Amino acid sequence: MSEPAHDAPDPLNDEYGGISVTTFDLDGLLRFWSRRWDDILELVAQHLAVVALSLIIAMIVGIGIGLLVWNKPVPRSVTIAAAGVALTIPSLALLALITPIFGLGWTPTVISLVFYSLLPIVRNTVVGLREVSPAIMESARGMGMSPTRVLFTIQLPIAWPIILTGVRVAAQLTIGIAAIAAYVAGPGLGQLIFQGLSSLGSKNALNFALTGTVGVIILALVVDGLFVLITRYSTSRGLRV
Amino acid sequence: MSIESATMAIATARQQPVRERFWTFKRFTVPIIVVVVLAALLIWLSSIQLDSIEERTLNWTYITLRVGEHLSLTVVASALVALLAIPTGILLSRTRSRALRGTILGIANVGQATPAVGVVILLAIVWQTGYTTALVALVIYAFLPVLRNTMIGLQQVDANVRESARGMGMTPNQVLLRIELPLAQPVILAGLRTSLVFCVGVATIATFINAGGLGDMIVNGLKLQRFPVLIVGAVLVACIALLIDWIAGLAEDLLKPKGI
Amino acid sequence: MSESTDTAITAIARKTDGASIVLDHVTKVYAGQDAPAVEEFSMTVDPGELIMFVGPSGCGKTTTMKMVNRIIEPTSGSISIDGRDVLSLDPNELRRHIGYVIQQIGLFPHMTIAENIGVVPKLLGWTKQRTAERIDELLQTVQLDPGVFANRYPKQLSGGQQQRVGVARALAADPPVMLMDEPFGATDPITREKLQAEFLRLQASIGKSIIFVTHDFDEAIKLGDRIAVLSERSHIEQFDTPANILAEPANAYVSSFIGKGAALKRLALLPVADAGLGAASGAGPLTVDIGDSLRDALDALVLNGSPAIDVVSDGRVVGSLDMDRISQALGAELPSTRTGA
After folding, report:
1. Contact A237 C153 (CB under 8 A)
2. Residue contact C108–A140, C-beta within 8 A
């Protein structure tokens, strides 16, 4: 049993049905934040940066793969199955497997994040490209467009909102996984969470962990909102619902 | 993640053609790959020299203990989640209150954005470390995908089907049991499958709060720079995740009502 | 592509007044099926002709049409446009000079109407100026105000408007040949009539060689210069002008297409001026205009309840029509025996 931590004499009962819990001290939390605001912001920036970098790489690779396999049934199902495998593997395991080769820090983090982002992006690219109506495809070919031209000027723009949704899902995924990556010295808010763990028993443990977790939640929600905006403004007006 | 799985589940459930043979070769791809990988692992292990630290970890007793802890966490948590989240989902899908449903959706969004490692460690700080805490964290984390899928699954039952059932004189409970739940079942099972995979993943993190499991091997391997330990732990956990996902997929396909 | 392809396509492109289309023993067999979808189809379309392919679903009419621009590749036989073998040309280049309108239209939802119409000109490298002018011209031709519609998106247009844009888009590069697969099929009857009337007007002024597929025999009669009545495997049962087919159907199959009222349909094709006019009868109140068809005249006659009806031109009565004169205009010779319609 770990000792409950008190910052100050606490009128709140810290025994709930025989289970001892650490109480939440709002004052302490606010003081904690005011002292560490710079560090926290820097970690937020790092977190965003590593996620953004991974997403960009994943988009290039993922959309590229999608463009190559969307109309070839066997490569398509193999690719999607392979990407699905990556998503099933627990993130800590994947991160750990990469470290012997790539060390600690940014590199294994980015590689794992890209890996995890591939499934939503590849699958949505393939689905989006395939869902363009046959009538549109036929009239485009009938007008004399080559298959490649149809792919890039007709299918891709029409599939774009769906692809972007895949990137959005990938963003949500990776923001969460990046938090775990802190264990292999990855950048971002996860470091706060793990600091909370390593200072377990001290008065600031809860503050660290809470700040880290809440920070990730807010970041994820804000990024999601950003994606809604980006999708709206990058989609042709003719396609918007 | 669960929107994706829900949507994909609905999409896959609707598009599956009638299969003639269930037990084809393709169905066993995942287990075969797992067996091959494990065999390769064993061969590699027997070919290298292990030092004393590694020997303490890389033996059958230790490994079986960790695997047992990991599986127990996963299975118990998933069972609890199923028992709690599905009835809640059924109840919630019956409310007419838009405000309630809106709040649930809001909470679900926040929940989806929450990092698992945060939940685990926060719980450990606030309460205590150990197996029970990990179990609670797993249940909390896996609750939402199942809840969401249950609600979506019930919601996407065609209103016309519901209406004709009531028109035939079935009570609301009968409609639920005989029509809605069977039709929603593929989506609900897809949610359970997702939550199982989540549980395996979060159980790996449980090592940070002294809950045991294969995460122990990974973390020890990393801390002590003993890569064989690290690799065995990571590969084993990956294999378990793949096998559990495969079994869940099997159940999904076997239990799917014919005709959908 | 090769020198000869370029020359061939340029030559075809120049025939904006219509090019001849020749199909010679064209056959299409799909893999895994015993019966061919199209069997030994041979036909010549003269420049500027509007040919209707009529037949039931599955008879192969659309397949045949789609082989002309090689959306479907023939298994055997040859197809030539303006005397040049289509099968030896680069398909993409070829299609840029064939107008193609399909039933579901297939407007590109992410492009404006102007961008949609400008697709082929852009593919052909037209200047922006020339394209813009052409877009304006085409929109006006299909009776859509360019100021209003050019920058709208397909989803903002009604079905009939979308159809018109589809036709305008097919005409954009002024192709000598057009292929149209039930282009007015997805609209309601009222819109369809309007579209058909507009289309006739258009064809009268631009005169392209057109293959038009329809399952609606009345549409075929209304629009076509010649009609090919097709049965299974795209077998040609009769290939002739509407009037001739109506007057002398080749067999029971063709008759079944015509249905009852063949005589009335023939009358609809004949203008009042074709019949000899008698003296003004003064029977009233209904009259018929000299520009109307003989069927309108018959219709008015019946409504009037009088033996004859007056014909007016520019408000002045110029003569009259009665049953005899109308019958004589039909050629009077009704086949003595005819199997049931």
Report:
1. yes
2. yes
